[in-house]
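Quick one: structure tokens for this chain, please?
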Amino acid sequence: MTQSYVELCAEGRTLAGGVRIGHPGRGWGYWPLFTICQLLRLRWSIRISGAEHVQRGPAILIGNHLSLLDPVFVGLSRTWRLTFFTKIEAFERRGGWFFWSTGQIPLRRGDELATRWALAMSAWALKFGNILAIYPEGTRSPDRVSLHRLHRRVLIPVLQANPDVPVHVVAIAYPGTQRGRRRVDIRVSPPLTLDISSDDPQQLTDTVTKALLALGGMPYVHEFAREMKART
């Protein structure tokens, strides 16, 4: 890391152009909101299997994306300090305080400088011992069921920059209601076997895709979710 955490935060504020971004990976509100958000369990029945595969310390979780609440439910399921990439527009809206106060990483799509900054900040989050969550579909699945083609713009650089950090896939599903509460089923895989040094980006992406499909059993659509949404 060529920049200190303080220097990187200052750069991020400049790149954000006045949007409040807080302290990614270190937000003061994470644990207070973790406690408050447990109230969601009154409405949602959250079940997780395979969490024992994630050992203490930094890890990378790669998940399918069905709902805005996906990372919230994964975070609530265990006492993991979860950091994830969030489009910067979410920081600008009402409720944006949730993202900056819990230390999430803003990402401006299509901005190369902002992307490099976000990747550098993710390295600090891992250094702090956080769990880094990535949703490489880029947006929610249009049919709220299928796995769509994975973007490599963030996924591959994160994997290549952190070859010694365990990587797991996380499959989430919302299979209806039980006793008046909506069910959330989360499955976590053992660490993936990835050959970061020799596999090319397509091979790494294929390995992650196959692992997600095997874990979650969801249908696959070989099309970017954002493109499909644009046509509908």
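The radius of gyration is 17 Å.
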